[in-house]
Amino acid sequence: MPAKIIARLGSVRPPKRCRSDMDNTSTSDIVIINGNSHPDLANMVAERMGIKNGGCSVFHKSNRETIVEISDSVRGKDIYIIQTGTKDANNNIMELLIMAYACKTSSARSIVGVIPYLPYSKQCKMRKRGCIVSKLLAKMMCTSGLTHIITMDLHQKEIQGFFDIPVDNLRASPFLLQYIQESIPDYRNSVIVARNPGVAKKANSYAERLRLGLAVIHGEQKETDADEVDGRYSPPPTSAYSNLLGNSVEMCLPATPSSNRQRTTSVSVGVPEHIVKVKPPLTIVGDVSGRIAIMVDDLIDDVQAFVAAAEMLKENGACKIYVLATHGLLSSDAPRQLEESPIDEIVVTNTIPHEIQKLQCHKIKTIDISILIAEAIRRIHNKESMSYLFRNVTLED
Questions:
Q1: Do residues 207 and 217 make contact, with C-beta atoms less than 8 angstroms apart?
Q2: Which ranges of 200-333 does DSSP label H, i.e. alpha helix?
Q3: Order of all β-strands in the sheet with 110-115
Q4: Which residue in 286, 303, 333, 361 has its CB near the most CB atoms, within 10 A?
């Protein structure tokens, strides 16, 4: 071949790819699949990312065994399984584990579990002679093949330490703050309310961002998780046994100088008994008279505590009452109780499907957070920093 032709061929540049081709290339190895917990959310996330929802069917046999069939190839691809927790938590978990293991055995490159609401997140502490169920669930997820977890507003952020894989705990507070500013008339006349001292940190974070006052409801009608009696509270020994125990301990102890004995206090009745906590009646610390009360929390499930708090706020002169939360589980007859309560509006995100509950209670409003999940998936896939999604968000949220 002549040298001129070779030089000319060497100088030819490949055609530039248009932006749509680049976008298609970056998402060509992403596969989004979902179980039966929240297909609408999975479709919205896939639509925002401009990709097709992967072909995965999850169904139950007559004996209630879970069957998973993935029709598309997942070999060497990044799989994102969107499966949230609902009232049917046990089936939701099994569907997620089986889908993850099916992708693992089909040679998927990475398997990311997108779990907007993590089931059993409230069982993250030892109670009585039970167990920490969140730790067990984390081990099961890691063993099934999940390589990453995306969730939102965990009940306790320390749950992330139960996992042996990376966990991104997204925040819904920017969406709720925007709703307060844009959809609550005269929100400057509002006060952020914590329905119990345990939510005071979250409520204080909202109050600081909105430059609003803070009120805390102290005292509860039922016991909190921290006050439940567990097996560690055993009765003290009897007086005869304690005297015998004390004598034997004194015989085993080495001799001490008289100066040290004078600084040592002994208890004659054995092991001191734990003093029982006596909860005061519901009281409000803060002024809510003539103000708009906005209660914030991470989960609305059993609404009796919210209804009792709303009744007290109304008695103390609150003109309107709003309840904002990330997850709206709304179990049992929660919609009926909310409809009959003095609460004017309940605002939750769509991390959990609650369309049936909205038909039973017209006060329930929904905020779409699919754009946040889609952006998190895009950043993880492109190996971009996730710090933008946590900008101006403190650990108390």
A1: no
A2: 200-210, 239-252, 258-262, 304-315
A3: 30-34, 78-82, 110-115, 148-152, 167-170
A4: 303
CA distances from 373 to 11, 112, 137, 151 (A): 45, 12, 22, 9
Would you state the pLDDT for residue 270? Answer: 66
113: CB partners within 8 A, 6+ apart: 81, 83, 96, 100, 141, 146, 148, 149, 150
Confidence of residue 258 (pLDDT cuts 50, 70, 90): low
Contacts of 356 (CB under 8 A, 6+ apart): none
Residue range 99-125: average pLDDT?
A: 96
Residue for token pair 């070779």: 6
Query: The tokens of 83 are what?
Result: 């499966």
What residues pair up with 347 in beta bridges, in sequence order? 324, 365
Please state, in angstroms and rounded to a whole number, the distance separating the CA atoms of residues 256 and 260: 7
Instruction: Burial-class residue 190 by CB neighbours within 10 Å (0-12, 13-18, 19+).
Output: buried
Cβ 144 vs Cβ 108: under 8 Å:
no
> Which residues fall within 8 angstroms of residue 183, CB to CB, at 6 or more apart?
none
Contact status, residue 212 vs residue 191, Cβ threshold 8 Å: yes
Name the residue type at position 273.
E
> Is the CB of residue 85 less than 8 Å from the CB of residue 10?
no
First to last CA, the chain: 70
Contact 117, 331 (CB under 8 A): no
Quick one: average pLDDT of 102-123?
A: 96
Name the DSSP class of 107: T
Q: What are phi and psi of 270, to 5 degrees?
A: 90, -145
Q: What is the CA radius of gyration of the chain?
A: 28
Q: Name the band, by pLDDT with cuts 50, 70 and 90, for residue 55.
A: confident
Per-residue pLDDT reduced to its tens digit, 166-182: 999 999 999 999 999 99
Burial class (CB in 10 A: 0-12, 13-18, 19+), 366: middle
